[in-house]
Amino acid sequence: MALPLLAIDTRTLRFSFIWRGVTRPCAPRSQGNAKLTREPGDDSSQGSFYYRSKLSALTFEGTDYLRLLQIEQSSDRCTPIGLLLETRPNPYEPWQSEEQFVFTCNEAKWDHKEGTATVTPATDDAYRLFLENYDQEYNLLTTPGARSQVTAELATLAAGTFVEFLRIDANEQADYLNTEGWTTFLVNTSWISGGVTQKGTRSRDILLFRYRLPNQAMTAPVPPGTQYTPVDMSGRGWTVLPDSEDTVNHTIDYVKTPAISGFKPYKISNYGNWNDPNNPAARPIYDAQLLLLPCFQSPADYGYTNSDYLKVTGSGGSGGGPSLGGAFNSEADGGQCLNVRRNVDQGDSEPANSKSLWWRFGQFKFGRCFPLLNGIHHLLQQTVAATGQTALLPTTPAGLSVGFSQDPNPATGETGAANELPRLLLSAGSDVKRYGASEPADRLLVSLKQVLADLAAFYDCGWFIDPATGKFRIEHRAYLETSRAAGATLDLTALPDAHLPEAYSYRTGQLPRFEELTVSNATTENAAAGIYFDKASIDYGMGGCVNAREGQNKATKTSARLTGDVAGLVLSGDAIPDSAIALLAPDTAGTLTNANQQVAASELLRRYHRRGAAAASATVAGQALVVDSVRPTRLQEGMSVPLCSLRGIDGTTHLTTSLGPDGQLAKAELDLLAGTCTLSAFLPPLTPTGPAPAWHRDFADPFTTQFS
Question: In this predicted model, what pLDDT tens digit does every residue of 531-543 receive, in sequence order?
Fold first, then answer.
């Protein structure tokens, strides 16, 4: 036997079908739980950028059922059916549109015996079609507009890291290859002319290279007096170099095998293969990638740019760049040069055969970059074109955001050159990895949903449809706080017949001790400087005002595609997939002067995650975090108020409850049967009145000491 259906109060609310432009009144019923609910449409832990309504299940019978059945049995059964809800404060006031919903016959539960159709309609607001389609992928690299070039230098990208070279004989390969980070850089089998007492032979030179990270601090022993231990950096590909520990300063060296995307060892089979500007007969096979120059001469002496090159032989490099020469097997001229013509020792008596070798790995030019907002605008344009919601698209990319296109920086207040947000650029990760490729990437599929999620993880921003313009918009959390500051106040304590309990609880699930930002496509860190591209956390400490319980003490935001780790892309590109999207923050001259550190996970947390914090005091990588605001920490539920509409109640509304002012809407439920409204509110942290008073013992000392 079916449960009895309850009638909805039609004095203050009414429903109507909308079918092909024609509106017809209807009278849905409910099995006792007919509610219109308004709650955050996105993550509400720190405050939501938009709110949405939803309607509980409704049942149609009688004439309403027959109308729907006609559609169900027609060729138009897949056409959406609109449902309009209107409300009014009393029977003497005009009706006002409250919300519009939509459903299809496929979504209904049909009972022909009982003559009913039950459905849970979807809210037909500006968000519906967009949310249903913004996970579709489109080609980001078809973004229109000119491309710009960004320049980075190895000495900046690899600050603290050295590219170390070693020459060995071919018969020594088994002793070195794949050991302690060594891998092949160059194989030289060119013919060596014989002398008066020697026959000609072929060179057996093998040049190896690796990355070396020297003088890294070790972990202090616990308890004191025991041995210091190296930090485990294997997750980033670094291994400890044996016998490199400094027992006085307690440091140690790490090494890593280069994994440069697309790199293949150079092979020199003929002396003419070298690019030797002093050898007119040379036919270099690697063009200007390798320059073989007389000792103590540089690329600039032959019309090249020194900063483009890394000096392989000897110590130092382009402007003292990152090349360790101490382990290089040089034979002449103070360890700065390489004997390239003989496989025997050569002294200073034969300086003509001593050469310096330069590798074009000192400066990198990424020439396929385009503005961040242009890329988002392009993805949005294709997304709304598929749904017909072209009105959501701002006329220009700059119209997407004030904070990402204008001064001042919404999070830091910086302006001009110090504000990198308007200069943010995108590039295919593969174009950064293979920066010199003759055929750049032309296809990189990604959804707008993924880009927006990654951007929110990076910059603590959110997207919404601006109610004032109807346009899609992206802004930092500072915008949300500014909008709320200008919002209206609803004093629940002044409403007649309001039931306002004074109970509250803490939002422990939204107050973790750690808030972590993880960047999937990143590997680089500079622990000494506190710069981490791949992962960093806000640490609110061990105090009882945050949730430090095991399994509950960490919240994680992840960027799955965006990465700022240019060093990782260039130096260890094989460890990062081609699907990565590089986010670059060049200076006004188009140069990554600080290795793109503004887009390191640790720097993003320090500069952009300062509002809506879980507590007023925190650190990032051991450095104090400037906290600009704290999120609501308490939740007050079960408030019943005499409201017949939810219009105008959203995240900007200041709710005054029985526990004080400045509450934020957590959830509002309008009971369509009883005509009542139930509210839940997020409440701000309590304001301390001073230290807690001292407790005095209530028992005799001999008793209380049992618990001490």
Answer: 999 999 999 998 8
Q: Report how far apart, in Å, the C-alpha atoms of 101 and of each of 63, 331, 673 are.
A: 20, 82, 18
Residue type, 391: A
Q: What is the mean pLDDT of the chain?
A: 88
- Residue 653 token pair: 């509304």
Query: What digits encode the pLDDT tens for the residues 108-141?
Result: 999 999 999 999 999 999 999 999 999 999 999 9
Res. 639 pLDDT band, cuts 50 70 90? very high
pLDDT at 6: 56
Measured in whole angstroms, the distance separating CA 654 from the mean position of its chain's CA atoms is 31
| 325 pLDDT more than 50 | no
Cα–Cα distance list, 191 to 281, 326, 515, 704 (Å):
15, 28, 61, 92
Angstrom distance (rounded) from CA 214 to CA 527 = 12
Closest listed residue to residue 37, CA positions, set 664, 638, 646, 641:
646
Give the pLDDT confidence of 426-454 residue by residue, as tens digits. Answer: 999 999 999 988 889 999 999 999 999 99
Number of neighbours of residue 231 by Cβ within 10 angstroms: 14
CB 481 within 8 A of CB 684: no
Q: In 3-state terms, what secondary structure has residue 707?
A: helix
Taking phi over 0 as left and psi of -120 to 50 as alpha, with beta for the rest, 557 belongs to beta
Beta strand segments in 295-437, E: 310-311, 323-324, 338-339, 354-359, 363-371, 425-428
Quote the CA–CA distance of 651 and 631 in Å, as a whole number.
13
Calpha distance 331→294 (Å, rounded): 14
Half-sphere exposure in the Cβ direction for 1 (13 Å, CA): 1
Q: Do residues 583 and 425 lie in contact, with contact meaning Cβ atoms separated by under 8 Å?
A: yes
**What token pair was written down for 309?**
């090159």
The residue length of the chain stands at 708
Tokens in use for 284?
């270099």
Which has the closest alpha carbon to 637: 680, 668, 670, 669?
Answer: 680
- Please identify which residue in the block is written with the tokens 């319980």: 549
Q: How far does the chain reach from its first CA to its final CA, in angstroms? A: 64
Q: In the structure encoding, which two tokens stand for residue 411, read together?
A: 């999070």
Render 456-515 in DSSP notation, one character per residue. Answer: HHHH-EEEEE-TTT--EEEEEHHHHHHHHHT--EEEGGGSTT-B-----EE-GGG-BSEE
CA 419 – CA 546 distance, rounded (Å): 32
Overall average pLDDT of the 167-171 stretch: 85
CA distances to 336, 373, 456, 466, 667 from 480, rounded to whole Å, are 60, 20, 13, 12, 18
Cα separation, 463 vs 480, in Å, equals 10
Q: Is residue 324 very low, low, confident or very high in pLDDT (cuts 50, 70, 90)?
A: very low
Tell me the H-state helices in 533-653.
566-571, 601-608
pLDDT of residue 412: 96
Residue 347 has pLDDT above 60, yes or no: no
Q: Which two tokens stand for residue 491?
A: 């004093």
Residue 413: both structure tokens together: 């207040």
CA distance to 27, 49, 108, 324, per residue, from 77 (Å): 21, 36, 11, 74
* 663 and 656 Cβ atoms separated by less than 8 Å: yes
